[in-house]
# Entry
Amino acid sequence: MNRNFELFRKAIRALTFKEKLLVHFFGLVLIGTIAIFTWNFYGGLNKSPRIVDGGTYNEGLVGSVKILNPLYTDFNNVDRDISQLIFSGLTRYDPLSRDFVADLATYTLSDDEKKYVFTLRDGIKWHDDTPLTVDDIIFTYKDVIQNKDFQNSVLKANFSGVEIVKENEKQVSFTVNEPNNFFITNTNVGILPKHIFVDTEVKDLMKYSSTLKPIGSGPFVVESGPKDNGDLTTVNLSRFEDYYGEKPKIEKVRFLVYPAGELLYKNTSQLHGISKLTENDLANLDDKERFTLYEYTLPQYMAVFFNFDSALMKNKNMRIAAMKSIDKKIILEEIKGKEIIDNPLLDLDQSEWFFKPSLEEAKGALFGLGWNIDKDATEDKARTNAKGDKLVLTLITHELPTGHPAQVETEKLIGLLKKQWLEAGIEIRDEYYILTELEDKIKKREYDMLLTGVNMGYNLDIYAYWHSSQAKAEGLNFSNFRSFEADAIIENLRQAFVKDEKYEEALKKLRKVISDDFPAVFLYAPKFYAAIDNRINNVNIKNLAFPADRFAYFNNWYIKEGR
# Structure
């Protein structure tokens, strides 16, 4: 080492003055380069944002927690949101591909496209460490959903006539009567633990208190709650360390559920996320710069359904008058953040209107039915017939808590509808019912018109709403619309596993068949926003069928903090 150094020193001495300056210059450049590299590697990287495995995510919701049971989440979006992280199904919806992928199980489809065989993953546990088995799947679908006392009519209809068989300890099969390309979308239902509910009567499942800790197999465990403090209900979740899938990066999730939007807006400083905001809600959102907004739409619409079995609405000209009286553009001038919907087939372009408003045509249809306006009466008075009967139609809808955003919007909408109908001479008696009462009214079809929202879910299958077989007490054919031609098209669409030009032609034909009978006023579809704290990263919110689908990739979300 000393000899090498001596040789280096002699070499330097032999250099000219200019050569020595060059050596010193390049030496300084080399030292500077090494210093910068070292700083970037050891200092710069440490100052880059780091992904923290842990942290707590607080989400604000408006509504109430009813029952954290995946079989009843169709009744309450708050329950659906929270249950999405607690329970898991045979399959799960993948918003990016808009397809259903394996979750608890993989599956194969038989050549005749009727039999689905699911093979359960290995090593799946419930949150109480009990193994999840095929018996839990059989219990959920066969013992509960197919039970005559099961109270979710939508889910019950989806599995009506389906043969469910335990093939072995790892496999369960579902066999449908006819090929149905929509069937797989029903298998994302959260599975129930048999060992928890085996001794509970199916009719009593909805009475199972939401204050009791639900046991699921999803990525999060209920740590505490639901805890009701009057103006706030909290549900605290923690990461399930034995989860079979990719474990979430965020360790804890806290849901803060407020009965009214005003209370939520006062507490936004506590929140990292708010999921279902309208354009009007955005104006009330404080500290907007702290949030990133994600706009999304859902496959749903608001409509007024005409009851074909009603004494007045069974006449086609009355339905024409009721439909032609409504100008949706006027309504959307008052109710912002909506997109006009003109038919129930959401696969089709909604800009091609079949239902065009015309107050004169509405008046003409009513006059032709013998409903006249008293010349001496004011312009907005209801029409009467030769018997002196006043033209009054009953409109029923769901009543929500006072101040709830949906209730405020519904009341405003009904006010606008009543005003337009009265211009044609139709008086409306609007009636609001709580959910259980409304369901009873619908079962008995005790209404002329029903105002309700329809969510087409993951597959846009209209069978439940427009097939003749569903024009019954337990069915969702709210108009009691019956058409053999429509039935045939709907059944053929279900058997089409490829959505090609013929598929779209069939949709257009079905649209015409439905439109020709004037079964409803299709109003609008809402636009929503999710506001997520800027510190939450890797958020992907698109192609949602339900607001809860924003959690499809929640396991990938992370909190960026520190350097």
Remarks:
- The longest strand covers residues 520-533.
- Residues 41-47 have pLDDT under 50 and may be disordered.
- DSSP finds 16 helices and 21 strands in the chain.
